[in-house]
C-alpha cells in the first residue's frame, strides 16, 4: 500500500525473527562513533534520513547493520550509483570520507520484527513497497516504522531483504529497546575506508559487483 498512511483501525500482528547472541554483524559508520554505538539523533520527518530512522514523533537511537560486509557497504555507499559507459560503478571519495566499517555482535538473543517475506509484510499490514521504496518515500516509511513500533512493543529492531544486495538481509536495531551495553564491538575488525588501504579493501570486496573507488591522491613531498 504505497504512499498510504498506517490504517487507523487495524491491529497488526507482526511476525518475530530471532537474532541469536554472538551473530557477527557489520555496519558502516562515521569514525566519530564507536563500532557498536547507536546513532543518538533522529532524522527530520520530511527531509533526508534513512528508511527506518527515528523522528521527533518517536525518538529512539538506532543502528543499521547487515550480516555481510558487502551488504553493509552496498546499503550505505551505493545508493543510486549508476553504471558508467564501461559497465562499472564508481563510489565518490567524498562518500567515504571520515567513514569506517566495523563488526559487532549482541551479548544476548534479540527479537526483531520480520519484514523478510510477503506473509511477514502482510502481517504488518504492508506489502513490498515498505522495503523496496526509494529514498523519496522515506518520510512515509519512517511513519510506518513509528506505527509498527507501537503495534509491536516487543520488537528490538526490524529485519528486511536488502534492496541493494539481493538475497541478503539488512536490519535496524532500536537503542531504546536493546539492553544497555548489549552490543559488543569486535576489536581489530574495523577498516578505515578513506585511506589507500581502505580503497584496496573496498575494491577487493566489491569486485563481483563491478564497483570500485579511486585511491586517495598521493601527497607530493
Which percent range describes the beta-strand content? 15-25%
Gross morphology: globular
CA radius of gyration: 18 Å
N- to C-terminal distance? 59 Å
Largest sheet: 5 strands, mixed
List low-pLDDT spans.
none
Q: Strand order within the widest sheet? A: 1-6-7-8-3
Mean pLDDT equals 94
* Backbone structural class: alpha+beta
Number of strands: 11
Order of helices and strands: EEEHEHEEHHHEEEEHE
Keywords:
five-stranded mixed sheet, four-stranded antiparallel sheet, alpha+beta, 221 residues, single chain, 23% strand
Written account of the structure:
The chain is an alpha+beta fold. It has one domain (16-213). Helices cover 21% and strands 23% of the residues. The chain has six helices and eleven strands. The protein has helices at 69-77, 93-96, 118-123, 129-132, 138-151, 196-205; strands at residues 16-19, 25-30, 62-66, 89-91, 99-106, 110-114, 157-161, 169-174, 183-185, 191-192, 211-213. The strands form three sheets. A five-stranded mixed β-sheet has the order 1-6-7-8-3. Strands 2, 5, 9 and 10 form a four-stranded antiparallel β-sheet that branches. The radius of gyration is 18 Å and the shape is globular.
